[in-house]
Model the fold of this input.
Amino acid sequence: MDDEKLKYRIGENIAAYRKNAGLTQAGLAEKLNYSDKAVSKWERGESVPDVLTLVQLAEQLDITVGDLLSDPNELPGNPGTLEKAMTQVSEKALKRKANKNVILGLSSTLVWFVALLVFVILSSFEVLERYSWLVFFYAIPANAIVLLSLRSAWHDFRWNQGLISLITWGGILSIYMTLLIIFRLHFWKIFLLGIPGQIAIFLWFRMFRPAKDAGEEKNDG
Done:
């Protein structure tokens, strides 16, 4: 079976079963911890969920994975065809997921390699040696920013809240350590800034999705 046809078939089935379940794209996305843009791309046949997400989709829609892969316009035929198609999707999805994990791992490794390189360079100067290890604190939010950018580019928003929180607290920690080591300022109150920041992050991710749900329902109506 042609890959594009299989993508469109899966997309049509997701859309049909989602509507039968009375869910909007944003509503289904929230249950799967994805964005509504990702669900929209699945239903348009622009991308295919990975095998684990297919299983979660089937559970949320109270159907089987086979229902998502089957052609609703055809009578059941050779069961081997469906099994072959499912295997093909699973293998490609797992390979794509593995490739993304490799990219994420390489990106994190590069960030810490750069931090180590800067540390080595700074530590070679006697006047900067005592401050050189501060670069590792700044590598924490830098690494989170890189991961956030990559996942957002892939429309994978499952870890955005945690990554943004890590950027916030990692940045505050870096500033605190800089003030402490360089200027001898024990300015612990700077951590208080993270509390409203964390609350804002939490509320944003809790309030933004319902807003999308309302917009989606309006479009469906």
Remarks:
- Confidence is low (pLDDT under 50) at residues 75-80, 210-221.
- DSSP finds nine helices and no strands in the chain.
